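Study this:
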Amino acid sequence: MNGLTWIAGVLSLFVVLFDAFQTIILPRRAIGRFRITRLFYALTWRPWVILSQLVNDVRKRETLYSYYGPLSLIFLLIIWAFGLVLGFALLFTSLGSPLHDQLQAAGFRSDLYMSGTTLFTLGLGDVTPHSPAVRALVILEAGTGLGFLAAVMGYFPVLYSAFSRREVSIALLDARAGSPPTAAELLRRHSHVGAEEALGLLLTEWERWSAELLESHISYPLLCYFRSQHANQSWLSALTSILDTSALLIAGVRGHEARQAQLTFIMARHALIDLSQVLSLKPAAHCADRLPRDRYEELYGRLCQSGVSVCRDGNSYERLRELRALYEQYAEALAEYLRMPLPTWIPEKPRVDNWERVSRLRVQTEAEDSAETATHTQIPVSLIEPHHDF
């Protein structure tokens, strides 16, 4: 028996199986700096970004970015399968390749072929083992192959189920905060009478969404690379806009929903920081100010025009800056790495979207209804003047 070859085979199997176990089965953050999955994404994502940036069309470039997540999953499975085939082939070689090959003399190529057909349970029979130890390894590899395929088949539904749950809330945010979502638009669309309860309920839902995002994306970091259906939507922009809104409610808006805003802010910030750590990203050291003083004044002016009760004391801007410092550096780091632009605080290009059209039609309906109601409530003259029958 060749001891070094045996050790190499066992090590290859251990590295692959442990990495697959952490990635697919373990429901918590994976550990290890030199894991196959971590190295794979570290070595492939940035070259993919560089190649995608050669495309000038923004939509086509975003489409290329969206291909990376599903394709990386396929290539990662190929790497795992190759590592298993190589590991068992090295074990066969360490035992002296006691195989009978009908096409060639037994050697490492026969070991690789035997390992591949056994792992994928083909059982062709053109290469057969000639020793009890190899027969035991063949049985072990066949069982490993079945278990590996079963785990992979169960991995895809869980992965896409988590992706689907994430995207539903992002799609619903479109009508509530615009596309891309902004804090100013979210508060403006919740400035009607009785909107405090609706806004508090929305923040409660996004607190839970942030917790689900944290749980699913830490267990399956691959989901961070999966992009939304539309180019102007992403999980990062949605999460950041909710953080912006919560920070604004805490720092400078009157209302009972500020209590729920604190809870949502804490949960959303927790998710943002942990996901940046999962991707091994450091907070952005130097980033552009997303809300300078002049934009802040414009933001508060728009909120006042919309009927939002704002606090205009001298320290509201500084309170907001202090809250922004708790999360913006991590959001900037994720945006730079994943190529997902962060939302602005105020819509850059005001446009009439579906919400505006529906809202305008509803206003017309209410106006017509009020006019009709006023007409029907007038007292008929016949009821005012006496009526006599002669």
Notes: The CA atoms of residues 284 and 333 lie 5 Å apart. The mean pLDDT is 84. The longest helix spans residues 132-177. The two ends are 128 Å apart (CA to CA).
